[in-house]
Amino acid sequence: MWPLRPLGEVSQPFLGLALNRQRPPEQGAHEVPVVSAKDLEDDALITGPLGTVLVDPAASYQRYRIEPGDVLLVARGATLRVALAPELHGALATSSLIVLRPGDALRGTVLAAYLRGPQGQAELRSRIRTSTTTQALNVKDVAALAVPIPDAATQHQIEALYLATEAAFLEGLAEARFRREMGSAVMNHLLFAGSEKGRAAAGGQP
Known about the structure:
The chain has 206 residues and is an alpha+beta fold. The protein is 37% helix and 22% strand. It has helices at residues 7-10, 108-116, 118-125, 139-143, 152-201; strands spanning 4-6, 11-15, 30-35, 40-41, 44-45, 51-55, 71-74, 82-84, 92-93, 97-102, 129-130, 135-136, 146-148. The strands form five sheets. Strands 2-10-7-8 form a four-stranded antiparallel β-sheet. Helix 2 crosses helix 5. It is globular and about 65 Å long.
């Protein structure tokens, strides 16, 4: 059995930026992309197009910037989606996400694989706090979660498998979306063509 360590010891967990608490930006503000819970679909990060927010260039948002290899965890709701962040070119995480920035002891791919798995999901669900309106995780509870730390060789194996299955999943997702869009276009064409035929049979009356 692999040794267990608190997640807060092997990663840097933090909550994303609360956009509704930001003051209106000053003159010269610029747009930056943001990633929120809605951008995680079936444990995959859907990267385009991302939303944007105006930020004050004088303020520091560096702590909220997502780096490649960060693990993104949906902080609210009953669906505990987890995704590994690719290069997002300075995108900020919003407060609907908890970001886990792995340290040297644990690869992000291994952490994501654990949190997606049945044991990791059960551990996360046991830490959900429920109020009258929401279900949410907080950073302190997530940081206390004990995670297994495999040796370097096993982590390398897990990472290779994770990346291969992730690539296959995203490829299949893109193909499924394409087929759905094509099917929708054909169905709309048939519906439209049927309407045109009906109007023609009625002598051109709408």
